[in-house]
Design brief:
The protein is an alpha/beta fold. It has nine helices and eight strands. α1 packs across α2. The longest helix has 22 residues. It has an eight-stranded parallel sheet. It starts with a helix and ends in a 5-residue tail after the last helix. α2 links the parallel β1 and β2. 44% of the residues lie in helices and 16% in strands. Bound molecules: pyridoxal-5'-phosphate (PLP).
Length: 229
């Protein structure tokens, strides 16, 4: 398994480099988050031994068990839906939270981070296609709340994150990613605060996301294989 994970990582890094080249971007500006949810610590060890350091998990309980098994300096990012009653347990495990999807959650993370002494990096999750089933701020909510979010003293807000809806055509997904980038640009213009990062792209669409400005791609199955549910 470990040789396969090493080969997969090398292949993904090459595809990231190719997408950066097509877009005229530096590979230094795109971080690969290896999403290890549902995979055992052994799989993370294999990636770590191949030189990879940044991992993503989507459940706090799973991370409580897995994170202590991996040597430092692994860097863990939380990418799933975060329940407010799990925030206190999550803060010591994760440097970065990709999925701050409501004002209520942002306020809770800020308050608990103050109590516990953390300054997490966060992405604001954006529901770019206004899907009723999906978490995240709509465009209108983001404009309503951006000043409040940016005032939260414990959250280092670095940018926007999105999970686009399933689309039949890849060019539609490209438009979703571009729409998030443009929304970010508008927010920067309105607030004067830099929001340099965009967390966009998974196994099936990370190259499109990079071409449209992603700085953080969250890739799981293309590295670790099919997840067993
Ligand atoms: C699982 C997950 C990923 C990785 O998905 P793959 O298709 O396996 O690459 C990325 N982002 C989020 C939010 C996820 O939950």
């Amino acid at each position: 398994m470990s040789a396969l994970i090493e080969d997969n990582l090398a292949a993904i890094n090459q595809r990231i480099a190719d997408a950066c080249a097509r877009a005229g971007r530096s590979t230094d500006d795109v971080e690969l988050i290896a999403v290890s949810k549902k995979f055992p610590a052994d799989a993370v060890h294999a990636a770590f031994d191949a030189g990879h350091r940044v991992f993503g998990e989507s459940r706090v309980q799973e991370a409580i068990e897995k994170v202590p098994l991996i040597q430092s300096p692994a860097d863990w990012h939380f990418i799933g839906r975060l329940q407010k009653n799990k925030v206190r347990k999550a803060l010591p495990l994760f440097s970065t939270f990709h999925s701050i999807d409501s004002l209520e959650l942002a306020l809770a993370v800020n308050r608990i981070a103050r109590e516990e002494g953390f300054f997490p990096k966060v992405f604001i999750q954006t529901n770019i296609a206004d899907e009723s089933s999906k978490a995240g701020f709509s465009r209108a909510e983001l404009f309503d709340h951006i000043d409040t979010l940016l005032d939260l003293d414990r959250l280092q807000i670095v940018g926007l994150m999105t999970i686009p809806p399933p689309r039949k055509e890849r060019e539609e997904t490209r438009r979703d990613f571009a729409a998030v980038r443009e929304l970010r640009d508008e927010l920067v213009k309105q607030t004067g605060i830099p929001l340099p990062e965009l967390s966009m792209g998974m196994s099936s669409d990370f190259e499109l996301a990079i071409e449209e400005g992603s700085t953080a791609v969250r890739v799981g199955s293309a590295i670790f294989g099919k997840r067993a549910y």
